Amino acid sequence: MIGFTATIPLEILIAAGRQPVDLRQLFLAAENPGELIDEAELAGFPVHCDPWLKGFYSCILRHGIREVIVVTNNRPGIGELAALLKLHDVSVIPFTYPADRSAESLALEIKKLARHFGAAPADIDRARQQLNRIRGKINRIDCLFREQQRGSSRQVIELLLATCDMQGDPQVFADQVDSRLIELEHQPRRPQQLQLACIGEIPLCSNLYETLEEQGAAVIYCEQGRQAAMPFESDSLVEQYRQFTLPYDIFTRTSFCRDDLDHTPTDGILLFSSNAPSQQIEEMLIRQQLRYPLLKLFNQRPGELDAANRMKLEGFLDTLRSGD
User: Fold this and answer.
1) Cβ atoms within 10 A of the Cβ of 1, count?
2) Read out DSSP for 220-280?
3) Whole-angstrom Cα distance, residue 233 to residue 167?
4) Could you give the CA distance from residue 324 to residue 322 in angstroms, rounded to a whole number?
5) What pLDDT digit, counting tens, does each position of 250-309 carry?
6) pLDDT of residue 189
7) How far is CA 321 from CA 26, 214, 286, in A?
8) Which of 131, 147, 243, 288 has a CA between 20 and 30 Å from the CA of residue 235?
9) Contact assessment for residue 27 and residue 56, using Cβ atoms and an 8 Å cutoff
10) What is the CATH number of the domain that holds 100?
11) What is the domain range of residue 112?
12) Rounded CA gap, 174 and 202, in Å?
């Protein structure tokens, strides 16, 4: 079982016959994710430390994961987490997306990762073809969801996010995707609702979608889920992960989101982030680049929306309805 902290070239692990585990999904799927936060804090993590780092740490130790691919430029503090994991005899394999999106630099990173796991180029290409067939169906589901208002936010977005590791078994996941696609094709359209886009981090609040539905709103676009499904055509693995926008600069990300939102009727944006200073600047840039009403919510701890954030959300929806 190979854990990873953010999206990596999954094709390499599949080609090498290794079981991939997206640590973000493992954290969120825990019966009580809050306990994982508590375990990390008892181990010495500061209370105000990034909850994702605490979740990764506890998941790795609780599940006995011995190898972890750390995306080094994914989030502040990830290098320190990698050092801490080494103290627990966890093998850390670094992977870096080049800041300039250089094809040559990215090809070198992919080659190093493939060499580490002993994945042959022909096997990687076969894995890529297999995974892209699944992604094609996932993107069909996303299209039904966004453009034809079929399915619920939780139903579709969780499936999109699961594409990062294909739930550890692409064939089993493919069968699940086939069933979900047939189900959505025969579902009636959703009733008219306020339509929201979710930008930034994966939301930690467990009842976000249900709370919005109670208020006559729905998340119909999720940046993280959309990117996980790789909704772009490419003729090579390197080009595929060059087009994947999340690791790169804010202008690359917002340009892709803007093109998507131009084709998806959207009333407003929910921006999820930690409280890192760099993400406060990110908020300012996103507001400038995406000209939609925006509400920022902090990922502080997994669990249900607290009263303060629920009131903020309800106020935001009231503002959207009033058109102010």
Assistant:
1) 14
2) EEEHHHHHHT--S--SSHHHHHHH--TTS-HHHHHHHHHHHHHTS--SEEEEEE-S-HHHH
3) 23
4) 6
5) 999 999 999 999 988 899 999 998 766 666 788 889 999 998 999 999 888 898 998 888
6) 87
7) 36, 15, 22
8) 147
9) yes
10) 3.40.50.11890
11) 2-117
12) 23
